[in-house]
Design brief:
alpha/beta, Quinone Oxidoreductase, Chain A, domain 1, Rossmann fold, 2 domains, six-stranded parallel beta sheet
Length: about 350
């Protein structure tokens, strides 16, 4: 099969590798209908040390079950499924608490399981991980529907998780830091949760225009102290009740504690690219502000989100603005890195 490997920063290749096989009776093999490139894939694209073997890339997919292990009970060949970016058993106490990304029997897709930017994928803990999409034939489904379903494997529900962990409530002011696909998902989620004021901090107009369509009431293009001042002006000097940080870099975190309202919450879902974050008097302590967020337990939200997409309540698939076949995946990385594309979908049929 074809699969995507990264050998060093900026060095992405599509190669022919062995097809995955069942390794455990709880595994399934999925033929990928659509996958995509994530903003978090750009972190190693910028910084990965050279590797002779290469790292398997990709953690988002929708696809069709090809084969199941003997212990799989809820899935069968031919089922059309969404696979979250982390696998989990969905039965342990941690999963029942709603934190599937910390499942003691789970893990994250990537080098240890083979990546999902490929033609086929092995899905560990298949019963607990893959969720069937009812009544949809991926061979005949509308492209916009497939795009929206694909966002449920990560980016929309990661944005939703930011809003959920911030306990966004009707009438609140919310600031979203970052105009990538996750940030735009956070805007959409905050709108659906009833936020009255949604300030999107971003400077790429095509993205912020989509943010306005998703529900942003204001856009702040300024960064740093200037951006903080603008948000405080828009909030009457008080700041936002909830700040949803969807970037993961220190300047975004600094903006977040600059604009959070006293007693408010910062919810981080951008993968932190730093080890230490200030939590002292000048950042969180002095404002009685809380810090929440983490890797989104997409599996906890999937069933409800699938219904929201199927009924047309949400259309988060609009974040995809480019589609490539396997041979053009390296160009897809380049386009996202250069901000020429917001989010790139991979269609194996191209």
């Amino acid at each position: 099969m074809k699969a995507t490997l990264m050998y060093a920063a900026g060095d992405v290749r599509v190669e022919t590798v062995a097809d995955p096989t069942l390794q455990q009776p709880t595994d399934a093999i999925v033929r990928i209908t659509r996958s995509c490139i994530c903003g978090s894939d750009l972190h190693p694209y910028h910084s990965m040390d050279a590797s002779e073997r290469g790292n398997a890339m990709g953690h988002e997919l929708i696809g069709v079950i090809e084969q199941v292990g003997d212990a799989v009970r809820t899935l069968k060949p031919g089922d059309f499924v969404i696979v979250p970016f982390a696998y989990s058993d969905n039965t342990c106490e941690i999963c029942r608490d709603g934190f599937h990304t910390a499942c003691p029997h789970g893990g994250f897709f990537g080098p240890s399981t083979a990546g999902l930017q490929a033609e086929l994928a092995r899905i560990p803990q298949a019963d607990g991980t893959a969720v069937k999409v009812p009544g949809v034939n991926p061979d005949t489904a509308d492209e916009s529907l497939l795009a929206s379903l694909l966002t449920l494997s990560d980016v929309y529900l990661t944005g939703y998780h930011a809003a959920f962990m911030a306990q966004v409530a009707p009438g609140q002011s919310v600031t979203v830091v970052g105009d990538g696909a996750v940030g735009l998902g956070a805007v959409l989620a905050a709108k659906r949760m009833g936020a009255e004021q949604i300030i999107l901090m971003g400077r790429h107009q095509a993205r912020t225009d989509l943010g306005r369509e998703f529900g942003a009431t204001h856009v702040v293009a300024e960064r740093g102290e200037e951006g903080v001042a603008k948000v405080l002006e828009l909030t009457g000097g008080l700041g936002s009740h909830a700040v949803l940080e969807a970037v993961g870099h220190m300047p975004a975190y600094e903006q977040s504690y600059g604009v959070v309202r006293p007693g408010g919450v910062i919810s981080r879902v951008g993968v932190p690219q730093y080890e230490l974050a200030p939590v002292g008097f000048g950042s969180l302590f002095g404002k009685n502000a809380r810090l929440a967020g983490g890797p989104a337990p997409v599996r906890a939200y999937l069933e409800d989100a699938i219904q929201d997409v199927l009924t047309g309540e949400i259309n988060p698939g609009k974040v995809f603005d480019r589609t490539v076949g396997f041979d053009a995946i390296p160009e897809g990385y380049q386009a996202m890195d250069a901000r020429e594309a917001l989010k790139v979908m991979i269609d194996p049929s191209l």
